[in-house]
Amino acid sequence: MTARKDWDTYFLDMAYMASTRSQCGRRHVGAVLVQGKKLLGTAYNGAPMGVPDCSEAGCMLVEEYELVQVEDKEEVVKKQRCIRTIHAEQNLLLFTDREDREGSTVYVTDQPCWTCANMLANSGITEIVYHRVYPKDSEKVSLLMNQRNITFRCLADYEPPAGVLSEVTN
């Protein structure tokens, strides 16, 4: 008999299952909203409803420049970012009610970016649990969550269900 999954694993598995709906060729992200042990909503990253997604119309890339520390000096790095998709966390907030979010937990496959973290910080949730780290915004997002008294946990040892982990290209 297999051991019963703990709640964190159970809900993060659901976030990864939600991510399989994404048509983004760069990153599949899923998120779920939970209060207690009750599932209140699921979401994934993708284009707005009724609009061609990246698999149909291609990525809508913009170029950005980022200052990064390399050894003892700062370097400017050019990056591309797709702006066609709405992030999973943003979709989760759009399709759930504020009263449901009060005191709830968000399980998300990837650590939220700065924009999503800002939105989540104002959403009424009290905890974020994620698996994959997003190094670009990690420090400032952790600081924000600490300032807002939002529990912010990485499940680094978590293993996603077979067949749901997409290759990350950015």
UniProtKB/TrEMBL annotation:
InterPro entries: APOBEC/CMP_deaminase_Zn-bd, CMP_dCMP_dom, Cytidine_deaminase-like, dCMP_deaminase, dCMP_deaminase-rel, Deoxycytidylate_deaminase_dom
Binding site for Zn(2+): 87, 113, 116
Domain CMP/dCMP-type deaminase residues, every copy: 6-152
PROSITE patterns: CYT_DCMP_DEAMINASES_1, CYT_DCMP_DEAMINASES_2
Keyword terms, alphabetized: Hydrolase, Metal-binding, Zinc
Signal sequence range: none
tRNA-binding in keyword set: no
Cofactor(s) the record lists: Zn(2+)
Translocase keyword on record: no
Gene Ontology terms: biological process: pyrimidine nucleotide metabolic process
Annotated catalytic residues: 89 (proton donor)
GO molecular function, one term: zinc ion binding
Coiled-coil intervals: none
Pfam families per the UniProt record, alphabetical: dCMP_cyt_deam_1
GO cellular component: cytoplasm
Family, as annotated: Belongs to the cytidine and deoxycytidylate deaminase family.
Protein name per its UniProtKB record: CMP deaminase
